[in-house]
Amino acid sequence: MKGVKNGDARSGLSAAWGRLKWPVLLAAVLLCLGAVVVVGMVPGLLSVPKPSPSSPAWQQEPDRLSDASAVLPLDADAPIPVPAEVTRLLDATLKPAGAGNITGVVMDASTGQVLFDRDANANRIPASNMKLLTAAAALKALGPESRFTTRVLASDNPSTVVLTGGGDVLLGAGVSDPGAVMGRAGLASLAADTAASLTEAGIKGPITVQVDDSLFAGAPLNPAWSLDDVAAGETAPLFSLALNSGRYAPDVLTGPRPQESAVTTAQAFAEQLAAAGVTVSPGVERGKGLPAKVLAAAGSATVSDQVDLMLESSDNFLAEALGRMTALASGQKATYDGATAAVRQRLGELGIATDSMQLADVSGLALENQVSARQFADVVRAITSGPDLALRTALDGFPVAGLTGTLDDRYVDASTAEGAGLVRAKTGTLNTVIALSGYVVDADGRLLVFSFIGNGLDPGAAGNKAAMDRSASVLASCGCRG
């Protein structure tokens, strides 16, 4: 357009647009009509998806399952459920499948108001819900950050070393793993450090390995336990040091266990000492070392981490070990009776009524245990909402419905799915006993604690677990305002 002024250019463009205007507009109309036809043939093709309705954080599956803050933040103004409505709903779901009966209680965690009460003060066999009492007592007595130390001590005889138990029953056979709970302290690391100390002292061997398991007193096996349960690997005679929570391997959870876990551990230590280049005499024996001469030492996982493992996996052996350590910290003897006395003592310090309790162990295997649903709900409330912040660390150990621990295979059908990822509770199962105690935030953002205990039930009736799971799911999904 050389030599054409600006006005001429505009005039030329206008003329060109005039010639093209109608064809362009016609093409545009045809394109729009085509788009309408296609959308009609494929519904939703161009529709913008609606965003999912937002839910409060406590009603969503946790990003990190061990996040104890899952109960926070809560709405301080959230309405408290109406007791009559909670009762109406639970009366429809909390029914045994056949014989027996189920007692229960639901409480508002903040105020303590009882929202549902079915013989809540009646004593019942609680099965592994007992571990909730042990968890609270251990955290109260020992503190969440405490660790148990396994030591290798020198002896009067320079050629003898003494593996000395300090309450850690989660020792690993290999190298210490600082990020682990089971195996945080490893025999291979203890052996390597011991070998280095022996070399520094100019002691060449052969070395005799002894074991000192005297920290725990009394009978290693609780007479209240069924020998069938012991034979099935539910637990084992208890000593103050053990590998893999008293198992032959960390991933073998059933079947026979070592009956002398301290000796078994010392034998494994002797093998690691030989692997570290030390000449070791065959066999191990019991003995005492010199406390002032520590050749090597390794600390356990924290009490908080051990409590979490105990609750999540319902580990009977670990529960009893924590009970013995709680006894020692409470001025009691490190026996089974000392452990139950210490648990009762520490619960009393937390304001939990204990006069009616009958405790035969601290793991829940004994049928002689008698505890009420109300007492369990009070303990859960102390953990979630009480003034002793040390207890808060136990929140991480509660199994999450449908996701972790002993609840990982539950809450998977339509009748209980509403509680998946929301209900957090300790399970309990014996032949005719099923229990479930824990906490949940309802649909309005109110934190509730609950305990359901079934006794005299038909053995193996799947409907009993389902009844408890449905009942906990009801709490998760309702505002229950009537």
Quick gist of this model?
By secondary structure, this protein is of the alpha+beta class. It has helices spanning 6-41, 83-93, 130-142, 187-200, 227-231, 261-275, 303-313, 316-329, 336-349, 373-385, 462-477; strands at 101-108, 114-118, 123-124, 149-154, 160-164, 207-212, 280-286, 294-299, 371-372, 424-430, 433-441, 447-455.
Rounded to an integer, what's the Rg over CA atoms?
32 Å
**Strand-residue proportion:** 5-15%
Oligomeric description of these chains: single chain
What is the overall shape? elongated
- Uncertain runs are 1-70
Arithmetic mean pLDDT: 87
Structure annotation, total helices: 11
SSE pattern, N- to C-terminal: HHEEEHEEHEHHEEHHHEHEEEH
- Terminal residue distance: 82 Å
Computed structural class:
alpha+beta
Order of neighbouring strands in the sheet with most strands: 2-1-12-11-10
Number of strands: 12
Helix content: 25-40%
The major β-sheet equals: 5 strands, antiparallel
